[in-house]
Amino acid sequence: MKTSLISASLVAILAAGAAASLAFGQAGGPGPSGQNIAVIDVGTIFEKHVRFKAQMDQLKAEIERTENQWKAEAKEINGMVDQIKGMKSDSPDYHKLEAELARRQGDFNVNKALRNKELMERQGKIYFATYREVEDAVKDFCQRYNVALVIRYNAKPIDSSDPQEILRGIQRPIVYVDKRYDITGDIVTLLNRSAGTPVSGLPQGVPH
């Protein structure tokens, strides 16, 4: 521009899934040597979360329709402005059109501000609800595989052509991650499975 949406089917998947079949549990437990720390790329999860993407696409389409509506109304108002410029300021028609123009401009500004606020709030609710869903999925996963701590990190490579991206990249708190501790793919699979969506391109060992 707030509530968890984790479904009963996701809980069922976590409860009934084959033990140690998830990528993070392939070695018979969470990581080598009883390691109980994992990492997760939340940005990647949002990018691959099918239901979130569908909700955002729907919202973006609505925003586009709204913007087209504002453009059409603004065009009509500008037409009234052009019309009033060619009228005598002391004529009855001038004062009538002037009052109508003031009303239209006022309504336009108020309605646009309210509508934009509504769309921004809806976007925020979609992000918040999806993040709560991710939190619930991570919590259930960690309880199942005895993971005590999950650290957020950015798995994307640094864009060497962008100076600002380079600066952000070298400030990342995590420099190296053993991919065996990355549960991003597992969480994406669980979230999308709860919506009945097939998932491809995820780590081997994740049930499809």
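The record above closes out task 2.4. Task 2.5 opens with a second protein, given below.
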Amino acid sequence: MERSLEQTREGGLRFKPPKTKHGKRTISLPPHALKVLRLEIRLQMGLGNPALDGLVFCDEKGAPLLPNNMTRRWRDVCVSRGLPQVMFHALRHTHASALIAAGVDAVKISRRLGHADPTVTLRNYAHLFDKLDTSAASAIELALTQGVGAG
């Protein structure tokens, strides 16, 4: 992620640098997500392959969507598919929650979310990390029974 998009008071859109230096980051996406987000949608719309540096969420010509339009489109997708109607931004929290549940460490999650410090991630998602206590107990059990780390 090299830049963020904001809607100006005049109603237009402009790209700007992320809020912090940690906001400027590269994140990897699984192949299936790339396929769904970029290629399949564009091809279904008859738009052909996207540019490598093109936006994921854009109009038919590749221009950025107004935030209100993105929100409306997301709501329409949820309704048409019988999904819970959650805000689009909630997907960010769902992503973080899934990473925590999979046991990804807080530092990696923090970097992926663009947080300046892992304590931000821990503060926002501490309740989810608490649920992983059984895995911590299992790790200590392994260390005690197999002598891992004894010195």
